[in-house]
């Protein structure tokens, strides 16, 4: 199945959003613990992390797809 560029870009928006949210949530909790202002601090961390994650996903995404194709071909 061939994916359009707009579909891949939309997927990268969602993937980077979910990964940035999960990573900042988990790592913020690990670092700070259950502090009263932890959730507010997480929100700011997420807002800073998401654009970075999105830009990195644009660079890493195509490489990951190529690697996945190579691995899949080696297994069949």
Provide key terms for this protein.
elongated; 2 helices; 87% helix; 0% strand; mainly alpha
Description:
The chain is an all-alpha fold. 87% of the residues lie in helices and 0% in strands. It is built from two helices and no strands. It has helices spanning 5-32, 38-75.
Q: In sequence order, what are the helices and strands, one letter per element?
A: HH
Q: What profile does the largest beta sheet have?
A: none
> Whole-number radius of gyration?
16 Å
Low-confidence stretches: none
Number of strands: 0
How would you describe the shape?
Answer: elongated
What's the average pLDDT? 88
> If helices are DSSP runs of H or I spanning 4 or more residues, what is the number of helices?
2
Class computed from helices, strands and strand pairing: mainly alpha
Helicity, as a percent range: over 70%
Intertermini distance? 18 Å
Number of domains: 1
Proportion of strand residues:
under 5%
């Amino acid at each position: 199945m061939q994916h359009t560029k707009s579909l891949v870009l939309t997927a990268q928006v969602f993937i980077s959003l979910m990964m940035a949210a999960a990573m900042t949530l988990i790592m913020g909790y690990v670092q700070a613990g259950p502090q009263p202002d932890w959730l507010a601090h997480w929100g700011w961390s997420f807002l800073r992390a998401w654009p970075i994650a999105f830009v990195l996903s644009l660079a890493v995404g195509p490489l990951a797809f190529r690697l996945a194709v190579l691995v899949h071909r080696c297994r069949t």
